[in-house]
Amino acid sequence: MLVERGLASAALDPDGGAPHYRAASPVLALGPLLEARRGALYQVEHLVTELSERHRAAHIRASGAPVEVLSGAAAIRRRLLIMGRQAQHEVCSLLPMREAPVALSVEDGIEEVERDSMARGVLLRSVVERGWFDRPHTAASVAELVAQGQSVTVADRVPIKLTVVDRGIALLPLDPERDETEPVALVVHRSGLLTALQALFDQCYDRARPLRAVPEPPPGEHTARDGLDALDRQLLALLHVGLTDAAIARQLGMGHRTVQRRLSALMARADAATRFQLGSHAARAGWLD
Description:
Elements: E1 8-11, E2 20-23, H1 26-63, E3 67-71, H2 73-86, E4 90-95, H3 106-119, E5 123-129, H4 136-147, E6 151-155, E7 162-165, E8 169-173, E9 184-189, H5 192-207, E10 209-210, H6 230-240, H7 245-252, H8 256-269, H9 275-285
Parallel strand pairs: 4-5, 5-6
Antiparallel strand pairs: 1-2, 3-9, 4-7, 6-10, 7-8, 8-9
Helix pairs in contact: 2-3, 7-8
């Protein structure tokens, strides 16, 4: 029995006597078994968690309560992931700058939720607070969304973190300013409150500036219409949404002084005395299209 399970080895006696048995190393013998059991336990735990969330959602719908409360980062994270994976048409997000711990970071949300949603053809609409572009990893993740055709707008300030899925369910923090380590969130189902939250998102989205994706032709290639190369167009698009020179440099992988030199050249070409005048000229001349 022990030999069959890999817990011991048997050496036959050349003289026909009884075989000699040697115990196998516990690590080598039991390691694969433990890994298999651990994997099975994880799958069961994941299934129990998913069933628990479905039971909670069904109970809320049956009770008719428009709002449920989630406590703890783990519970909030699970619900966000489930909402994203169940999205069929649209996911709307408000992303303010917050130093407090969050259940799901912007980068993790893009990696774990948005990629799956985009693969299923779900439209993503986001309003991102400008300060996020001072963080290179977040800026790169947002740029990837835009490059894949998703709609991202940039605002000076975003009032609250909010996710609305298919205009049928929303999740937001109970108190955005609380400094406690265990966050508390509200899940809002179809109701007047949900309608108000969707209206808040739509208002923020309409007032923010769209972040445009600019194709990247080979270096030095110019358009016949205005002579701007792709790098100038990218720079103007980022300037248009209000990014600082430093943030633009990080976004484009350029030096700070290189950005300033190119902006100065564009200002001279547009006969603009200020960055604001350059932005206005770029919009009128179609440089942002």
